[in-house]
Design brief:
- 75% of the residues lie in helices and 0% in strands.
- It is an all-alpha fold.
- The longest helix has 38 residues, at 33-70.
- The chain starts with a helix and ends in a 10-residue tail after the last helix.
Length: 191
């Protein structure tokens, strides 16, 4: 993440385009939305950082919509994820989705699927995505603007700490194989 931060900062006039593209590749890098928005606040300030984040998140939402509608395998996997986390009959309002987008641990695309469920067509979906992306882009970008006043080293430490915190607070699962769980310990007899 630090390398991306330095790269974006060094691109000069192309920095906004590179930053918007960072939003588009963010899911493949497993970087949470708030971290990218904070970087936008640090690099561009509150106003432009929010605009660039909003643009990047909305383009990402549109790409998700197109892929969801055109790739059946992806739609079935996303629907399984939704059913596992939210159940069958969940209908959030746009306001609820906006609030849920502020929570860093909730999957961005899962909430995009909820928007698909409450809208009737592509135009409504795009409008809903835009409006639900405003709070997350604004809140975390303004936070990034505040930490902009810190030294570069302090900013890097804060971003690395946030990334580490997001990683450490993820859901952890331990899988123990059946034969390993019931394997007798050496020297003990159970008969």
């Amino acid at each position: 993440m630090t390398v991306l931060f330095v790269f974006i900062e060094s691109t000069g006039i192309l920095a906004p385009i590179v930053f918007i593209c960072l939003h588009l590749i963010r899911p493949f890098l497993f970087v949470p939305v708030p971290v990218v928005c904070i970087v936008g606040g640090i690099l561009f300030g509150s106003v432009f950082g929010t605009l660039y984040s909003l643009l990047g998140l909305t383009i990402l939402s549109v790409i998700f919509y197109v892929l969801y509608k055109r790739v059946p395998k992806l739609s079935s996997k996303i629907n399984q994820l939704k059913q596992k986390w939210l159940g069958n009959k969940v209908n959030f309002t746009m306001g609820q989705i906006s609030i849920l987008r502020l929570i860093p641990f909730i999957n961005f695309h899962l909430l995009s699927l909820c928007i698909i469920d409450v809208t009737r067509n592509f135009r409504q979906y795009t409008k809903g995505s835009f409006y639900t992306n405003i709070p997350v882009a604004l809140f975390y970008t303004v936070f990034g603007q505040f930490i902009r006043e810190f030294s570069t080293m302090m900013i890097i430490v804060i971003l690395l700490s946030l990334t580490l915190l997001f990683y450490l607070l993820r859901e952890k699962q331990v899988i123990i194989k059946w034969h390993e769980f019931f394997k007798p310990k050496a020297g003990r007899s159970y008969y």
